[in-house]
Amino acid sequence: MAVITNDEINAIRNKANIVDIIGSYLPLTQRGKNYVCVCPFHDDHSPSMSVSEEKQIYKCFACGNTGNVFTFVENYEGVNFIDAVAIVAEKAGIDIDKRKLKTNRVLINKDELEMMDIAEKYFQNNLKTEFGTTAMDYLNGRGINEDIIKEFGIGLSLDNGDSLYNLLLKKKYDSKKILEVGLVNDSNGKYYDMFTRRITFPLWDKDGNIVGFSARIYRGEVDTSKYINSRETKLFKKGETLYNYHHAREFVKNEKSVIVVEGFMDAIRLSVEGVRNVVALQGTALTKEQIVLLKKLHVKVILCLDNDNAGEAATLSNGDMLIKEGLEVYVIRLSGEKDPDEYILVHGINAFKENLKNPFTFFDFKMYYLKKNKDLSKSNDLALYINQVLEEVANTGDEILIEVTLNNISKEYNLAMDVLRGKLRGLQKDNKKEVKVVEKKIKEKKDAYLLSADKIIYFMLNGGAYINEYQKKLGFFEDALHREIANEIIYYYQRNNAINPADFISYVSDKETIKDEVMNIVSNGIDDDVSIEIMDGYIARVDELMVKNEIKRLKIELKNETDASKKIEILERITELKKSD
């Protein structure tokens, strides 16, 4: 089975000038030997991103986003690495075998993904049989027609409890693998279908691969869960997916926003009615992985969660998390019906679109939320509310928002501005103290050893001479992470007889344990002067610190050792190390 190789990926990167590719997305201005632009990965108002034509790397000096041409496209387009390779190749006019790119995406879980595709086709075919009449009536009654069924892969699981299982066995799939992907359950060694007598909805990962299913009752059953979902497997991690993400991406770009709803039926309903820039949480709480997916879209987020107390509380907590991650957040709160699906069925899509035209800012929603369950005619509740509002504005850097809020509070509740400003200044001072403590902790995380180790790694990425110098004069890092990166660099160089930061970034794109650290090292070293003499200084520093750390470790070992002969051995080792130090 053909797979695109690292050599082919590097060839594409070498032919695709990073300046031309980034310039196709953003206006670049030449400044010296580099180019600059406004960074698309944070709220940037001045050119913070620098693009090096010489090194074929970009870096934002404000948010730290760094990488090569593939990394940029991957982050900007919100696609995976292999899709980014395809986009870069197309933009650069390079012909590639697209079958290889498809193979790369599915190779690791090939059999598992094939089983999921078979299951979807099986479920869809069931809808077209005599057994699917009632289910089709139910779907049509909810405004879901043939086109929607096809687009969203909606199907039907049958009454007989092992029909899908037997089909997969006939296609020579292993029983244990069928169990592992969550299509069947195990009862004392007897396998039976996970889903029976339910309408099925495929669940996709961010790249559009089916990784699980959700299944809904439709015949008015009682004493049973309305929905059951695939259990978590190596394919399906609920917290790592957003329903409809792969469909919504292209519409998100046009609308410059993404609507986040709770249930997949809400996402389907909105899509049916032409609002296509929508994804679903399949729950209420955002995960870190889902926030990463939303950040990759680089648009404002509109939260439209269910019209109940849980949905309201989730809007608050999710909005807070998104704001902390630097996203622009708005809120829609629908009234009268439980969720967007029911709201549109009752009031129509135009009523929803009117809400969509005028969403709350997240700050305004929070102000509304803080008033809930408070009697502002009572002094204690009023004081609590105003203090909470001041705490919120103290966390913003928006001076206009602060001024507007203070003026509104002063006028509405007849409070002196100097009292409000005094309280606010106190809160802002406390926040600054907290920030300084955090900054200090961050700085302390990278001690002299780690900083020097980072520099040595960066030098090694700049050519074989630096790799040879590392092997000759150091050859080892005491921490596992730098040791692993160094070993990968040596392996890469031995295979390719050449190395540079841009190509190595492509090489580690699928190596989750080291990818982020490599990016950080490249980001922090991108403007460094590189020479053997400077590298030798860092090597000497790392060697010195590793010796000191080993002496410390041996002294602890000596203190705990009771055997006299072993104590002598430890003392001799400490003496040897001190001589070499």
Indicate the topology:
Blueprint: H1 6-15, H2 18-23, E1 29-31, E2 34-37, E3 49-52, E4 57-60, E5 66-67, H3 69-77, H4 81-91, H5 98-106, H6 110-127, H7 133-141, H8 146-152, E6 155-157, H9 163-170, H10 175-180, E7 184-187, E8 190-193, E9 198-204, E10 210-216, E11 227-229, H11 245-255, E12 257-261, H12 264-272, E13 278-280, H13 288-295, E14 300-303, H14 309-324, E15 329-331, H15 340-347, H16 349-357, E16 360-361, H17 362-371, H18 379-394, H19 399-413, H20 417-445, H21 448-460, H22 464-473, H23 480-496, H24 501-507, H25 512-525, H26 532-560, H27 564-580
Parallel strand pairs: 12-13, 12-14, 14-15
Antiparallel strand pairs: 1-2, 2-3, 3-4, 4-5, 6-9, 7-8, 9-10, 10-11, 15-16
Helix pairs in contact: 1-24, 3-4, 4-5, 12-15, 15-16, 17-18, 18-19, 18-20, 21-23, 21-26, 22-26, 26-27
Describe the protein's architecture and organization:
The protein has five domains: about 5-105, Zinc finger, CHC2-typedomain (DNA Primase, Chain A, Alpha-Beta Complex); about 110-235, DNA primase, catalytic core, N-terminal domain (DNA primase DNAg catalytic core, N-terminal domain), CATH 3.90.980.10; about 245-365, Dna Topoisomerase Vi A Subunit, Chain: A, domain 2; about 375-445; about 450-580, DNAb Helicase, Chain A (Orthogonal Bundle). The protein is of the alpha+beta class and about 575 residues long. Helix 4 runs antiparallel to helix 5 (about 100-105) and helix 12 packs parallel to helix 15 (about 340-345). A hairpin with a 5-residue loop joins strand 4 and strand 5. The strands form four sheets. Strands 1-2-3-4-5 form a five-stranded antiparallel sheet. The two termini are about 55 Å apart. The radius of gyration is 29 Å and the shape is globular.
